[in-house]
Amino acid sequence: MSVISMHTGRGAAMALCALLALTACGGDSGSGGETTANAPQQRDAAPTAVDRGREIFRFETFGNQGFWTSAMRLPQGIEDSGMTPLRALEMGLNINTAALAPQQAEALRNAAARIEAGADPADTVLAEPTRLNAWLNQGAVIGLVPFRADGERKPLGSSDGFTGGGLNLAAGDRLGVSCALCHASTEGDVLAPGVAGAGSAGQPVDGVIARDLDVGALFATANNPLAYLPLLQLRLDQPDAGGGDQGGLLDGLLPSGPEPEPYDGVTVGRGDFAGIPADGTLEEATAAAREYLTGTYQQDGETRRYYPLTSFDGTPDGLGNASITPPFFRTDLAAPGSHAGIFEQVDDFNNLDYTVAMEPTSLLTESGRAFLSVVAGRLGDEIARRYKAVLRDTGVIPEGMAATDVIPFVEVERTDLPVGAPAGPVGRRVAQRKLDDLRAYTDQLPAPAAPDDLDADQVAAGRALFTTRREDGGAGCAACHTADPNQPVSAEVVPIETLYPAYNDELLVLFERSTVSDFSDVQDARGGPAPAYDDSVVALDATLRGGRRGFAQPLLLALDGKARFLHDGSVRGSDARDGLDRLLDPARGEQAPHPFYFPENLDQGDDAQGRAALVEYLRSRTTGPSDEAL
After folding, report:
1. Which H or E element spans position 65?
2. What is the dihedral of CA 332, 337, 342, 343, to 10 degrees?
3. What are phi and psi of 508, to 5 degrees?
4. Distance from C-alpha of 70 to C-alpha of 586, rounded to nearest angstrom
5. Which of 308, 179, 143, 177 is nearest to 233 (CA)?
6. Within a 10 A sphere around the Cβ of 113, how many other Cβ atoms?
7. Residues 6+ apart with CB under 8 A from 347
8. What DSSP letter does each residue of 120-169 carry, written as one string?
9. Which among 237, 307, 338, 393 is most buried, taking Cβ atoms within 10 Å?
């Protein structure tokens, strides 16, 4: 699809779906070996696109340190809460020991040795808040990038340019966020995951996901979590018709007719969370935001999170739809269109992450507000109005100043793109050269190696089941998924009615937009065994990429490091074997999400042995020699 000027809703929908938490790939993973891209480069070698892309992946923020420090006030919250390295590890944050100054690296290794000898982690340097402050200042907390007051990124603690000290907010130091926060981990060679929390410490590994990263808890630590309002779960109370104050930008895009009924307090998300209200005090709204980000509910006898671990919500729709974060390796094989499968170009996909998901104040530009109105109608108008009020009430936009005098913070190369253009749906695009280099890096990042404990006979039997049609006695998985893991996945979108048969049992329509070409209504499934399954596409649809509202096919690689499956993580086990077995077990029922099982049903009895072989094959899938050659 060419990048063209779009003055219709279809371009905006294509763009917004790209924010679905960078979820075009499927499955999280364990750590992999040091790659050429991760390895140190010779000092006299000219940097390649891959070298530059590695730096962008790890450290590029495009100026979002302004948002995270001045709007969210994340480093202030870290400091005020007395966060320690131990708490950071418990949140699933990872420590790059190669970035630490020698004395700090030695202190961490000594703490790890003491823990291995039986010491409580709370009795080591991991319990010192000043230690975390020093590690943040050295750029050693993966994905959290320190800057000086003059806007220059601080040198790593291990570099010749490091001068010591900690992060000094009073002197104007700032903290930004890079891709690596969610899409990188470590070898765990100093601290393995599970020793002192879900996080790890060691040599960095890019492209894999930060397993069990608690994004919600990290955001809740910020002093002003309401600065992330468009990507939180709201209680929707707006009574008026759409259109906002955008004038001609919206002419002909939204349906006309009688004013719609008010939302009347409806909210969309997991469990029983009531939504962040539009009324009440700022303190009450902040408390509600933190409850959403960290709170729990009960379902099927389990305690679950409103904002689950290893999840991220990248859609500015006011709905609670955090989705499982995928890895970001071999992007040349993955359909880059996110869960909803809308985007065609990975550069466009990444641009939306930088210009909205990591820095949502772009939504309050003229183009940003028009974009919200197009894709979410009056729901989008309500989000924009409430967001602007929150930023004023919390001092992000000082009294007497226009919003555009302060925001957005993101640094872009272009601001002339029309509303909804794939290259920049909110009108903004970061530097193309950096997007090119980032793609060069992630395209070549290898998938982690297969685990060592595989049974070769079971893998072979499982591969046969995976590739053999159902009518011939197999599982028929290759009818949708690539038989050879080295081949790119199909960009086709699978309709949600196929993936969730109960989808049409009970639908709540929030906003009718049948007069807007190629859009389905803003609607939420309330029936069946998994009503939250469609939450990430309530305000979005996939009509433009070969299907109706639905989901794209995942990249089935490195699944052994994963215990939660499907985009919403609704199928979960104690480990990869257990989780995959549950996913493929027909006992889940014909109305459950992704009802494709082995055996197909239980009418003729179970085939746990065959399913175990299929699970073993799925655990084995990685890139390398052709599948047919294995």
Report:
1. helix 65-66
2. -60
3. -105, 115
4. 50
5. 308
6. 12
7. 432, 435, 436, 439
8. -GGGSGGG-HHHHHHHHHTT-BTTEEEE-TTSPBPPPTTSTT-------G
9. 338
Q: Which amino acid would we find at residue 518?
A: D
- pLDDT per position as a tens digit, 459-468: 999 999 999 9
Kindly write down the DSSP assignment for every residue of 502-529, as one continuous string.
TGGGSEEEEE--TTSTT---EEEE--SS
Task: Categorize the per-residue pLDDT at 567 as very low, low, confident or very high, splitting at 50, 70 and 90.
Answer: very high
d(CA 459, CA 450): 11
Contacting residues for 401 by C-beta, under 8 A, at least 6 apart: none
Q: What is the DSSP letter of 472?
A: G
Express each pLDDT in 342-365 by its tens digit. 788 889 989 999 999 999 999 999
Q: Which residues face 508 on adjacent strands? A: 524
Tokens 């210009």 locate to: 355
Residue 94 CA, chain-centre distance (Å), reads 17
Rounded Cα distance, 441 and 347, in Å: 12
| Angle at alpha carbon of residue 252, lines to 250 and 253, rounded to 5° | 60
86 touches 120 (CB < 8 A): no
Find the Cα–Cα–Cα–Cα dihedral 527, 528, 534, 535, rounded to 10°.
Answer: 60
The residue to which tokens 């050659």 are assigned: 629
> Nearest 5 degrees, angle CA 53-CA 54-CA 56?
60
How deeply is 42 buried, as exposed, middle or buried, from its count of CB atoms within 10 A (0-12, 13-18, 19+)?
exposed
Kindly state the tokens that stand for 106: 């030695």
Left (φ > 0), alpha (ψ -120 to 50) or beta: where does 22 sit?
Answer: left
Look at 378 and 33; give whichever has higher pLDDT: 378
Write out pLDDT tens, residues 83-118: 999 999 999 999 999 999 999 999 999 999 999 999
The token pair at 543 is 């009509």
Alpha carbons 472 and 463: distance in angstroms, whole number: 14
- Give phi and psi for 202, each to the nearest 5: 160, -160
CA 112 – CA 334 distance, rounded (Å): 37
CA 36 centroid distance within chain: 26
- Strands 184-186 and 204-206 come out as antiparallel
Q: Which residues pair with 564 in a beta bridge?
A: 572
Mean of all residue pLDDT scores within the chain: 87
The residue among 361, 348, 465, 416 whose CA lies nearest residue 63 is: 361
| Strand duo 201-202 + 95-96: pairing | parallel
pLDDT: is 600 or 336 the higher one? 600
Q: Which of 554, 550, 533 is nearest to 618 (CA)?
A: 554
Give how far Cα 139 sits from Cα of 82, 143, 157, 308, Å: 19, 8, 7, 26
Residue count of the chain: 630
Q: What is the pLDDT of residue 422?
A: 83
10 Å CB burial of residue 406 (0-12, 13-18, 19+) is middle
Residue 351: phi, psi to the nearest 5?
-60, -40
Tokens of 37: 């891209």
